[in-house]
Amino acid sequence: MIKGRIMSHLILILMVISFWPGPVQSAAASPLPNLIQQTRFIAYTPRSFSSSGGKIHAATEAGIREDLTLLHPFFNGVITYSATSGLEAVPQIAHELGFRALILGIWDPSSETEIRNVIHAAQKYPNLIGAIIVGNEGLYTRRYLPQNVDKAMQRIKKECPEMAVTTSEPFFLYFETEYRQFFNSHDLLMPNIHPVFEKWFTASNPSQGVDMVIEMVDKFQTTYTKPLLIKETGMPGYSSHDGRNNKDKGFSMKRQRLFWSDILKRFPFSPSQSLACFEAFDAPWKPAEMAATLPGDHSSEAFWGFFSKDGKAKQVLEALPRLPSSLQDL
Fold first, then answer.
1. pLDDT per residue over 301-327, tens digit each?
2. What average pLDDT does the segment 187-208 reach?
3. Domain extent for 38
4. Among 54, 145, 208, 220, which residue carries the largest CB count within 10 Å?
5. CA angle at residue 153 from 169 to 37, to 5 degrees?
């Protein structure tokens, strides 16, 4: 009976979401290949969270609940970047709303609070938490060292032996000889691959960026034998009133939709490789924060969202079929 029910759901998934199978098991009950292939993830920072001048405005539980309610019809998996400043509430709320899987992020690998929070969540919600990401682009920006990441991972593995652990860095770092052994020690790879930051990229040709992402997938395959889940890729989606600088760069909501429509058709999804959508909501506070430490124009960082800051759906969502209710709450 159970077998038949699973098979019927699987057939429905293949019919409705031909490019992206939906989940048939909980993340913790499945090996990594099932987690990767059968969950539609989106990278998520709460709209109620912000940072200005180094001062954190913590996310609220009410705001997180509102955000996840908006995301749930389209995504059954969420990836976070931190486990403090209000984000420690994400696992409970996601559990209550019926999400299939969470991948929890730790922003600071040396933070006892974040490590303790993800361990607590993994132990409390073993059927929900699928993996833990220790750090985000901190090696590239020199916020921490590989040994800081390793130490945190060992601590997590000691408390949660079956939990998959990894970190996340820009794609090119994975191919540098000095980091090869470091990344090989992780359970899966979750790189960030952003064609828009390459000098040759032009916003008028989104498919050019898709070509690069797929080429990088091939390179990962020949370099590593680890499961691959691309955590970040995409294009910013500006509207006509988002400023002259943004318009000059050629980005638009239409071109953002074209990028995602193309990559979801062409990406070689399999049990060993997939990609998450990036990211859930526009974040107008990001450019100023980035400019404080990195010179240059970071205006594009505000508009990667599939939803606007006020929670309105952007054109890019048209590239995704709505998840049937039967797949949200299996």
1. 999 999 999 999 999 999 998 776 655
2. 97
3. 2-328
4. 220
5. 60
